[in-house]
TrEMBL record:
InterPro entries reported in the protein's UniProt record: Lon_proteolytic, Lon_Prtase, PDZ_6, PDZ_sf, Ribosomal_Su5_D2-typ_SF, Ribsml_uS5_D2-typ_fold_subgr
Active site: 301, 346
Coiled-coil boundaries: none
EC number: 3.4.21.53
Basic and acidic residues: compositionally biased ranges: 29-55
Ranges of biased composition (kind: Low complexity): 19-28
Region (Disordered): 1-60
Residues that span the membrane, as ranges: 66-85
Reactions that this protein is recorded to catalyse: Hydrolysis of proteins in presence of ATP
Family matches, as PANTHER family: ATP DEPENDENT LON PROTEASE FAMILY MEMBER (PTHR10046)
Protein's UniProt name: endopeptidase La
GO molecular function: ATP binding; ATP-dependent peptidase activity; serine-type endopeptidase activity
Species of origin: Sinomonas humi
Amino acid sequence: MSTSGAPAAERRGVSSSVPPAAGIPADDGGARPPEDSSPRERPGEEGDRSGDGVVRRSRPRTGRGLVGAVAGVATLVLGGIVWAAPVPYVVELPGPVYNTLGSDNGKDLIAIHGHQTYPTQGALDLTTVYVEGGPNSNVSLLGLIRSALDPSQSILPVDAVYPKGVTTQTVSQENAQEMQSSQDNAIAAALKTLSIPFQQQLKIASLVDNSASAGKLQPQDTILSVGGQKVDSLTAIQQLVANSKGRPLDVVFQRNGAQHTVSITPRDSGGGHYLLGFTVAYSFSFPFSVDFALDSVGGPSAGMMFALGIIDKLTPENLTNGKQIAGTGTISPDGSVGEIGGIVQKMEGARSQGATLFLAPAGNCGEVVGHIPSGLSVVKVDTLDAARHAVESYSKGTDPATLPQCTK
């Protein structure tokens, strides 16, 4: 999640990551003033000094002397313009961290109502990335050079974060939606881990033009079954479609309170990979409420840490035993942990704030190796259960080197 001068939770496709949103920190809060990357210079005075302290009465200078003086001033001016000139790049740097067990602006980061909770200790920090630059805030050449010399910062083309034709407002809205989705997924994953029942449904989010489902399904339709099997997860649908090998499937769905059935023939997208041609969104009904107080952060990469924070608050055993642990990663309702963006910056930010253990998505291991800050141990995780086990083991004194590690 990120925007110029704001923390982001992730950049999608590099993380989550997800590009950070304009004006919304990515999982990443707290608005950071945009960097003034233009060189700051005090006005100088140009004088005519002979070098010996004697003021001579002489003819006005002409020729090479005047040309040299003008050239010198022009060089200074042009030099200043070049160094301050905007460049088509953005810079990722460490953003703030937020303890999911703590508070922000006087409000609990995670507040649970309608279910018993327990006291917590220590910290389960979610980490963020600042993204400087973008359509509305330029990075200067001088700022870019400074960032290139700082191993905790990364330089990316603007288009990698803000695709052409996509406004910062659109990116900001997407980041906010992804944060909301990550919070819902975190609740679902935590409750599933704790065997607390809740209702989960799949709704059609969008349809691919001219796909197998186009003209048969509509956005907001609730999928009840596929091929005669009840489904409540995307993974279940994907497995049923793969097993069909292109044979027609009956899809039962609900629209405006009425139940319907259509037959859809999956299409081969190449290499025997079959698709129905729609995307889905989860819809949940939880037995109690969980509120999050982190409006200034966007993106999906805080999901895993939110889920761990919920688990800690709902269980009598203290998860961290007072230790400061940080991490990042998207979360699916089934507890799968996904890769994110800005992992290097997030590790640096976590260590600078005192964390000694960092939970990294297995999918980010290629970026982790060789970039771990001194004093920080990193454990790779691919599920919420694995993350919980790592935290519990570390809090009880287990050597983190004996837990799953990122290797080349």
